[in-house]
Protein: HIG1 domain-containing protein
Amino acid sequence: MQIVLSILLGVAMFATLGVMFAGMLGLAQGEGNGARSNRLMRWRVTLQGVSLALFVLLMLTMRG
Structure:
């Protein structure tokens, strides 16, 4: 179970990083599309929440 949670946590963290970089690149290129920026921000926050939940589950399984 710990291995599966570790892999899922890694995937969620890299997905968060990818969405964050996509948003940063959009800002750096000067794209004024506010709807896209808001959508990326929502995805980033959601993925961060998923990552945090997976981290807590991993810590709980390691403790027991």
About this structure: DSSP finds two helices and no strands in the chain.
